[in-house]
Design goal:
Distance between the termini: 49 Å
Shape: globular
Oligomer: single chain
Number of domains: 1
Largest sheet: 5 strands, antiparallel
Order of helices and strands: HEEEEEEEEEEHE
Number of helices: 2
Mean pLDDT: 85
Low-confidence stretches: 5-26
Helix content: 10-25%
Length: 137
């Protein structure tokens, strides 16, 4: 009987130890509605619902739910001074063009930055930049 108690206790600790990995695995994919057209890398994407998937440590994919639009992109580590309340996308806005620039997962101060392309850098020299955010609902 004592062995059963020890085994049960050990399994309980193992389950609690695996919990952060399970939660972390869920954060590898997020679905979010983007209410305006935007650009990832140099690829324009229309208004819609998109799934962002972590492919590797610093590589991600954004795809629409219909499976007609998909962009793979490289990211860099990013930090935010305060944790975001929900998964949030940040866009650099130049006039009527919205470039996906970074994103953070709920409760995190670390996230991912999408480096500017040559076209975005050129645009940034001509047009003032503002920022727009889209939180997960």
């Amino acid at each position: 009987m004592k062995k059963i108690g020890i085994v049960s206790l050990a399994l309980g600790f193992l389950a609690v130890g695996l919990l952060p990995r399970v939660v972390s695995a869920q954060a590898k994919e997020v679905t979010i509605d983007i209410p305006f057209a935007f650009i990832v890398e140099d690829t324009p994407l229309p208004v819609g619902t998109y799934k962002i998937t972590r492919v590797s440590e610093l590589s991600h994919r954004i795809s629409d739910l219909k499976g007609t639009q998909e962009v793979m992109f490289i990211t860099q580590p990013a930090t935010n001074p305060t944790p975001v309340a929900t998964f949030t996308l940040f866009f650099n806005v130049y006039g009527d063009q919205n470039y996906l620039s970074k994103f953070f997962h709920q409760g995190k101060t670390s996230g991912y930055l999408i480096p500017q392309t040559a076209a975005e850098k050129e645009l940034a020299q001509k047009v003032p930049v503002t920022t727009k955010t889209v939180p997960e609902k």
